[in-house]
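Support request from a user on the community tier.

User writes: "When I paste my structure tokens into the form, the page sometimes reloads and wipes my input. The last time it worked, I copied everything first. Here is what I submitted, just in case something in the input itself triggers the reload:"
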């Protein structure tokens, strides 16, 4: 499916995840390891784009100068192969703008922004003003991050329409959990830019009903199988679709269940040989029992090879 969007340079259905940020045990950034993480996403998973310092990237624990260093590293690794976004959301617009300016100077090709973090209440005017203010300062393509869990609300349709007038929206991640809500957004905006979904029970139905792609946690662990399975979902039989939902759902649940996110995701990547580092405090690495449980899950679902002998 090679869908054309009126407001975006993306085509068809896309995969746009948030790679982890590797930290050493003392909390320092591991930029060489971060470069290897990005090569895994680019060369093995074959992503269409990615967002730096998203939830899996522990963006809330990253300073503004560190964000700049991560973006500089990403720009060198990507070397123009795909566009990529930097997540810059902070509580104040001023701080969000400062981060957006740092990211743009460091080489980000787009900006990722939430409606409002952690306050759990915002008027439509406040939401739109945030996007307008950041775009005025840094007029790069915008990734609208409708992170319902952290915002405490879903961006209303009228506010999203106003955001589209105020900012060059290139893609949206829609964090709703209801298929009905997802379909309303796809119907209203799906021809303008890709709308991404992640929850396992919602992902395949949304893709079949013309969503723009996926950006959830866990798919990347399937490596090179992600693109043919998920982006080829229309060609799969109903039974194959059900199996994809089961496998992805189980793996996504496992990486979330063991430890505090993204500790499980980092441990899973390390099991695949990707140098994901450890989480930054206060999040702690998996304890041995949880690591063993995660390894069993990944082996059961075919991500890790079964031991021989």
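"...and here is what came back when it finally went through:"
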């Amino acid at each position: 499916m090679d869908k054309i969007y009126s407001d975006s340079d993306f085509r068809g259905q896309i995969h746009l995840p948030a790679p982890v940020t590797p930290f050493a045990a003392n909390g320092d950034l591991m930029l060489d390891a971060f470069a290897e993480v990005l090569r895994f996403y680019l060369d093995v998973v074959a992503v269409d784009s990615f967002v730096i310092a998203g939830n899996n990237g522990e963006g809330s624990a990253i300073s503004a100068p560190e964000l700049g260093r991560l973006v500089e590293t990403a720009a060198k690794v990507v070397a123009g192969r795909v566009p990529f976004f930097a997540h810059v959301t902070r509580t104040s617009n001023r701080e969000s703008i400062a981060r957006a300016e740092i990211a743009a100077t460091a080489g980000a090709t787009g900006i990722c922004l939430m409606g409002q973090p952690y306050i759990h209440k915002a008027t439509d005017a406040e939401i739109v003003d945030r996007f307008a203010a950041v775009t005025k300062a840094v007029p790069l393509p915008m990734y609208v991050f409708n992170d319902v869990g952290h915002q405490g609300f879903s961006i209303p349709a009228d506010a999203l329409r106003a955001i589209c007038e105020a900012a060059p929206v290139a893609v949206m991640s829609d964090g709703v959990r209801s298929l009905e809500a997802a379909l309303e957004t796809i119907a209203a905006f799906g021809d303008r830019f890709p709308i991404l979904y992640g929850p396992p029970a919602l992902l395949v139905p949304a893709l079949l009903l013309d969503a723009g792609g996926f950006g959830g946690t866990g798919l990347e662990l399937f490596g090179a199988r992600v693109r043919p399975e998920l982006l080829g979902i229309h060609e799969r039989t109903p039974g194959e679709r059900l199996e994809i939902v089961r496998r992805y759902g189980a793996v996504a649940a496992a990486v979330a269940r063991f430890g505090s996110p993204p500790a499980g995701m980092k441990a899973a990547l390390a099991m695949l040989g990707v140098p994901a580092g450890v989480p930054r405090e206060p999040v702690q690495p998996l304890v041995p029992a949880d690591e063993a449980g995660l390894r069993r899950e990944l082996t059961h679902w075919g991500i890790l090879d079964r031991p021989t002998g």
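Agent notes: The reload is a front-end session timeout and is unrelated to the input. The first helix runs from residue 31 to 45. The beta strands are 14-15, 51-52, 85-87, 110-114, 142-146, 169-174, 195-197, 213-214. Escalated to web team.
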